[in-house]
Write a structure and sequence with these properties.
Elements lengths: L1 H63 L3 E6 L4 E4 L1 H7 L12 H4 L4 E4 L5 E4 L1 H17 L1 E10 L5 E12 L5 E10 L1 H19 L3 E5 L5 E4 L1 H7 L3 H4 L14 H12 L4 E8 L5 E12 L5 E10 L1 H47 L5 H26 L8 E4 L1 H14 L4 E7 L5 E4 L1 H19 L4 E12 L13 E10 L6 H4 L19 H11 L3 E7 L3 E9 L21 E5 L3 H13 L3 E5 L2 H10 L6 E5 L7 H11 L5 E5 L4 H10 L3 E4 L4 H12 L6
Parallel strand pairs: 14-16, 20-21, 20-22, 22-23, 23-24
Antiparallel strand pairs: 1-2, 1-7, 3-4, 5-6, 6-7, 8-9, 8-12, 10-11, 11-12, 13-15, 16-17, 17-19, 18-19
Length: 696
């Protein structure tokens, strides 16, 4: 019994000990699990805090994004938008929740103002494009760079660019979408400005050329094409600054490149060759184009064709030169003719006293002839400078042709042969000799220059010609009738067909700079037309050029023979002679008295007026100089005629212009005598006024 109890107690003790050990172990395990659970809770709290921090950051990024962000559910309804989207549409958040973006993108057909400052038309094609884009979105689940418009609350369209992506769950089901929308108003405005700028450059009259940093042309506008004759494809890709460029002079273009590649702008005139081989003068400005960092990224050239302006300037300068020459010629004519008047007058008086068989008579006779030639020379200067009205009279032109040939033989090189055939019958033309001489000289010198130093043959032919129904088509501008024809033929290189059409244009020339102005043939054409004639040119390349000039024939020859010293008819009458040159007063007084006239001489208008007032009926004729100090010949004549209205008065002058004839007629004067005047001419002028019987 006791043994059983002992064993039982032992077992219980063992079990109790085991239980105690298990409890200790269990407590240890619970403590460990509690520790682990605490750590997990701490980690969970930390994770939650990180998630909250991340979500806050995402919310901030979402709300502060410059691009608009729209989140939609599986039905396309808006669940979330950021502030940028609200600003984009001008709406409040509550107005957008639960709506689809399509509510702002699809609207009626019509015309709308946009925030880009333009007006756009929404038509059915716009909706067709939008529907096709939506179909692609459904098929592919994403669309990038989709451009269309949103309708703002204020009724204006906002141009946008949208990137849309569908969101899916693990089962592949669409659970929503995210759209990132960018306002492209600024870009559209820039594009519009770029289009406007491009259009302006395309339409501007100035030549615009863009050049890269290597000197290669990348763009030219239509004005450049028109100016140079090259197409855009023929110019783009070429480097006009490289050596050997056919567009510019190499040395000149390389000097420009050194300036602009060094970062400086270049301005000035450049000579540029065109496609047809001619040259144009371009007023150009070439400047570097820099980026925001100041680096040169290209060059822009803006040029204006100033060829015509320069030609006009040359024409104006030529006109100014001619005007100055005319003023100078008028002054020279007045003074020089006064000198010639004395030379001619005293020489003719000396001839009257000399024996014809003596050497003295022969010498003085040559002086008289030289004085007449000098007078003709002054007349030619006045004609050339347009300071005297040119009078056309019927004249034989064969002597002019002969004179020109003689002059050419003396001046042209011996390598050039001159042949001529001159028909002196029927060569009378209504003309002005100096202008006919100018036509001959221009045509002949042009022909000689075309043949150059190697020489050739110059043929000059003067003959008669007729324009009839048979050859009427050849001379369309000329009426039928008889003409005097002048042919100038050379064996030069000829004239190209394209230049042949422009050969009579003012300032057109194929000569190099400083070799000619291009005025010659235009002047010839003008002279021929003023003479109611015609001019034509024909040319065979590398063989010859022929100019044909036709002048209408005139029946009568009014060529005045050279005045020669000889007997001068005498007369009678009382003459008051007025001139501010004492020597002319003395000479003409002696000359007229030698012819039988009673002469009173005065050197001032005041003295003449005093004498006339004292005895108004004492004179049969008054000859007064036009230009005198204090009182001109016109002023003197007016006062004389107030005293005696029918007083015959002749005006004497060394220089007469077109206005003199009008004033003489208005005042009722009897005419003009031009210095220098010979004894015979002066006697004839007086007899035309007084007749053979002076007033008693």
């Amino acid at each position: 019994m006791e043994t059983v109890w002992f064993y039982s107690a032992s077992v219980l003790l063992v079990l109790a000990a085991c239980a105690a050990c298990w409890i200790v172990a269990l407590r240890r395990q619970v403590a460990q699990k509690n520790d682990a659970l605490g750590r997990e809770r701490a980690e969970h709290k930390q994770t939650e805090a990180s998630l909250r921090e991340a979500m806050d950051s995402l919310d901030k990024i979402f709300d502060n994004s410059l691009d608009s962000i729209v989140v939609s559910d599986s039905m396309g309804r808006i669940t979330r938008v950021n502030t940028s989207f609200l600003d984009l549409l001008g709406c409040e958040r509550e107005e957008l929740m639960g709506k689809t973006p399509a509510a702002f993108a699809y609207y009626d057909v019509g015309m709308y103002d946009t925030t880009a400052g333009e007006r756009v038309t929404i038509d059915h094609s716009f909706f067709d494009t939008a529907n096709r884009t939506m179909e692609r979105l459904f098929e592919e689940g994403k669309v990038f760079n989709w451009e269309y418009y949103f309708l703002r609350k204020d009724g204006k369209l906002v141009p946008i660019e949208e990137n849309v992506t569908y969101q899916h769950n693990e089962a592949g089901e669409r659970i929503g979408s995210v759209a990132v929308i960018r306002d492209i108003t600024g870009r559209k405005r820039s594009e519009k400005e770029s289009v406007r700028l491009s259009s302006a450059i395309e339409q501007v009259a100035e030549a615009v050329v863009l050049i890269d940093t290597e000197g290669v042309i990348r763009y030219i506008n239509p004005a450049t094409e028109k100016m140079l004759g090259f197409t855009r494809g023929e110019v783009v890709g070429r480097n006009p600054f490289r050596a050997g460029s056919e567009m510019y002079d190499s040395i000149f273009s390389q000097s420009i490149w050194r300036v602009i590649s060094g970062g400086q702008s270049w301005t000035g005139n450049m000579t540029q060759r065109t496609k047809d081989g001619n040259t144009r003068t371009i007023d150009a400005a070439i400047s570097p184009v820099r980026d925001d960092s100041g680096n040169i990224i290209s060059y822009v050239s803006i040029g204006r064709d100033v060829t015509g302006e320069l030609q006009m300037e040359r024409q104006v300068r030529q006109g100014q030169k001619m005007e100055a020459l005319g003023t100078l010629a008028g002054g020279i004519a007045h003074d020089f003719n006064n000198i010639l008047a004395a030379i001619l007058g005293f020489s003719e008086m000396a001839l009257r006293d000399a024996e014809e068989s003596t050497k003295l008579y022969q010498n003085v006779e040559q002086v008289v002839k030289a004085a007449h030639r000098a007078r003709t020379l002054v007349d030619q200067i006045l004609d050339f400078s347009h300071q005297r009205e040119q009078k056309m009279k019927p004249r034989k032109i064969s002597p002019l042709v002969k004179e020109t040939i003689a002059f050419l033989r003396a001046t042209l090189p011996s390598t050039l042969e001159i042949r001529h055939a001159i028909d002196e019958e029927g060569d009378t033309v209504l003309c002005e000799p100096t202008q006919i001489h100018q036509v001959l000289m221009n045509l002949c010198t042009n022909a000689a220059q075309s043949m150059g130093d190697k020489g050739g043959l110059l043929e000059i032919i003067l003959d008669r010609h007729s324009v009839s129904p048979v050859n009427r088509s050849t001379y369309r501008d000329l009426p039928e009738g008889r003409y005097v024809r002048l042919l100038i033929r050379d064996t030069g290189p000829g004239i190209s067909p394209e230049n042949l059409e422009r050969i009579f244009d003012p300032y057109f020339t194929t000569k190099e700079l400083n070799e000619g102005t291009g005025l010659g043939l235009a002047v010839v054409h003008g002279i021929v037309k003023r003479h109611k004639g015609g001019i034509s040119v024909s040319s065979t390349a590398h063989q010859s050029t022929v100019f044909e000039v036709l002048f209408p024939s005139a029946e009568k020859n009014d060529d005045a023979p050279e005045t020669e010293a000889g007997p001068t008819p005498s007369g009678s009458g009382r003459i008051l002679f007025v001139d501010d040159e004492q020597v002319l007063v003395a000479m003409n007084s002696d000359l007229l008295e030698s012819l039988g006239y009673d002469v009173t001489g005065c050197t001032t208008a005041e003295e003449a007026l005093r004498l006339f007032k004292a005895q108004p009926d004492a004179y049969d004729l008054i000859i007064t100089d036009k230009t005198m100090p204090h009182r001109s010949g016109y002023d003197l004549a007016k006062e004389l005629l107030q005293i005696r209205s029918q007083m015959p008065i002749l005006l004497s002058t060394g220089f007469s212009d077109a206005d003199d004839a009008r004033r003489v007629k208005e005042l009722g004067l009897k005419g003009i005598v031009k210095k220098p005047i010979s004894m015979c001419e002066l006697s004839d002028a007086i007899k035309q006024v007084l007749g053979d019987s002076p007033r008693e």
